[in-house]
Description:
With 289 residues, this protein is an alpha/beta fold. 47% of the residues lie in helices and 12% in strands. The chain has two domains: 10-98, no CATH class; 126-288, Endonuclease, Chain A. The protein has nine helices and eight strands. The protein starts with 9 loop residues before the first strand and ends with a helix.
Amino acid sequence: MVIEKGKREKIKIYSRWGDTFRSTNQRKAMQLIEIGLAEKYNHYSDGEFAIRLIKCTPEEAFRELKKQKKDITKIVCWECGKEPETNVYGRRNWCKKCHEKHTKTKQVNLDKYMLLRMKLMHDRALRIIENQRFPVDLLDYKEASKVVFDRAIKDLQVFDSAHEMVAVMELLRNKIMTKLKVRIGNHKPDILLPDEKIVLEIDGFLHKHRKKADKVRDVEMRKELGCEWEVVRIPTEYIEMNIKKLVDAIRGLKKEMQRVRKEYNGLLPENFSPRDQLVWDKLRRKLAK
Ligand SMILES: [Zn+2]
């Protein structure tokens, strides 16, 4: 529970039998719990926070509190012990100077971390290409790899995964223009292919559990972009398997989606997902040759 400065919400104090009550402010209520005279007590079903005295009357409790008060939780700066700028119970509070220092250090550390993260991600991307089930010549990816690396270093937020990096390398190699993390309505899809009118999403293991949310997302993005666009989802396993066929796969899937839409008056039927699987299996077999 957070107690904010200036918040005057009253906390009810119940007797140990849960009948009579008084009220006090949040700080005092928490202090009574801290010194062992009261416990949390949610009397109401709406979960409203209240406390219950354990073994004393309210008068005794407040007398004891007053006695101990100077020892309990005088909030001071977390770093230097001086008067803090904020006054939030149960959290770290800083004076202005220490707060600025803390914020700055945190940002510097975060930048360092993000930079390392990108470097490791890029290394992992190259490893994914090295370990393709259908082996490829890594030299084909040298130039694209460099472009992706520079892009990642320039904007540390632009790639979420090594698989995305691999996909962008392959698209670059095929001279297909990509835009990353562009806002479409309320969404920020992984990769946008403006010339192909395709939104490309790289789906990891987690997506298996949120198919429905993904479907809503797809519909909303197409509303923004127009009906010539399709959201194509490529599983990460595929990126690991046969990256050289990525462009064929994306185009193939888009074509199939648009064909099915035509048949169903612009809508993808409810059963498109299992069909999606069939299309995938067909494509996989074709591409594996
Ligand atoms: Zn300080």
